[in-house]
Design goal:
115 residues, 6-stranded mixed β-sheet, mainly beta, Coagulation Factor XIII, Chain A, domain 1, elongated
Length: 115
């Protein structure tokens, strides 16, 4: 099983148009090297579901994850049109070959977008 054991963002407050780093600590307990897509999404904290979340597919990364615990980073650009306010952040892993979900975690109210 491959899991996200720790996760973070480089800045908890950032202005629209800024690119932030999104970090993952991944524990690959499968015994073999895995290739996973590092995905990330945000949504306004006032929105209850992730159905209309905001992603940055330009910065999606396929990571080669050897067995054991490793750290990975991808970037996320906050769109110029985002409304200022508090946002929830989600970190996701998908199988790079078939797109199947591998792991997902989220942190409510973890990002404040400013003008």
């Amino acid at each position: 099983m491959t899991t996200i054991t720790n996760y973070w963002i480089s800045r908890t407050a950032a202005s629209r148009g800024t690119t932030i780093a999104i970090g993952y600590t991944i524990d690959n307990g499968t015994g073999r090297t895995e290739r996973v897509m590092l995905g990330a999404s945000i949504k306004p904290a006032s929105v209850l579901t992730w159905g209309r979340s905001i992603s940055d597919p330009f910065h999606d990364v396929v990571a080669t994850v050897p067995p054991g615990v490793t750290t990975h980073v991808r970037y996320f650009t906050l769109a110029d049109g985002l409304h200022p306010g508090k946002y929830d952040v989600a970190w996701g892993l998908r199988n790079a070959a078939n797109g199947a979900p591998v792991a997902l975690v989220s942190a409510p109210l973890s990002l404040r977008v400013t003008r």
